[in-house]
Amino acid sequence: MLSTNFVKSPAVLTVWVFLFLLLLSIITAGVSVYLIFDGIDKRTEALESMEKYERLKKKKNEIEVPDEKMMPTNEDIVTLSNKVKIVNNLSISKGRPVLYLLTRLEELLPKEAYLISFNHKKMKGEIQIIAQSSDKKILTEFLGRLEEDPYFSEVLLTKKIFKDKEKAVHFEVRLKENNK
Q1: Dihedral, CA of residue 141, residue 129, residue 81 and residue 75, to nearest 10
Q2: Who contacts 77 (Cβ-Cβ below 8 Å, separation ≥6)?
Q3: What is the mean pLDDT of residues 130-147?
Q4: Which of 42, 59, 113, 155 measures 20 to 30 Å from 163, CA to CA?
Q5: Contact between 121 and 95 (Cβ < 8 Å)
Q6: Which of 164, 169, 147 is nearest to 156 (CA)?
Q7: 3-state secondary structure of 76
């Protein structure tokens, strides 16, 4: 008679099937637990991302956008550019450096005002400037700062111009630089 060594008894086969099914259910349970925890993590990340998005959206709304009325016009920028070219040419000649004077005026100028014209007669020590702002109080403050500054004297407001179209005020000021 022919004998085989494949299966000795049905009980051994049942044990192997039981162990295989047990292993398969343990793996399935492990994968299920992993997927549950991974889903919880993804949901937590999604909630955190939404919270971050809401905070960023709120901060974006809080950021102040500069008022277009306060910004110089393109025409003013071209004028300033031309004036800067002139200033650069003037700074080569003798006298107090123009760059120094412009730096000093910039320190005194309020943030809400712009220097739109600068004319310096070095030999006489005279300076003529035009400053612009949307509010005359800001330019009045600038005049006070010029009068108190030790580097300038004889500060004189020569012209005040209201520009309705631009909603701006121009102050034309003449002053002298001190030689101290």
Answers
A1: 70
A2: none
A3: 90
A4: 155
A5: no
A6: 147
A7: helix
Structure-token match 């992993």, residue found: 34
Q: What's the token pair of residue 51?
A: 């919270």
Structure tokens at 40: 């919880």
- Is residue 59 packed enough to be buried (19+ CB in 10 Å), middle (13-18) or exposed (0-12)? exposed
- What is the DSSP-derived secondary structure letter of residue 89? H
Strand partners, 128: 119, 174
Q: Do 13 and 21 contact (CB within 8 A), yes or no?
A: no
pLDDT beyond 70 at 9: no
Question: What three-state secondary structure class fits 167?
Answer: coil
CB of 110 closer than 8 Å to CB of 160: no
d(CA 159, CA 123): 24
pLDDT (tens digit per residue) in 75-124: 887 888 888 777 766 655 555 678 888 888 999 999 989 898 888 887 78
pTM to 2 decimals? 0.48
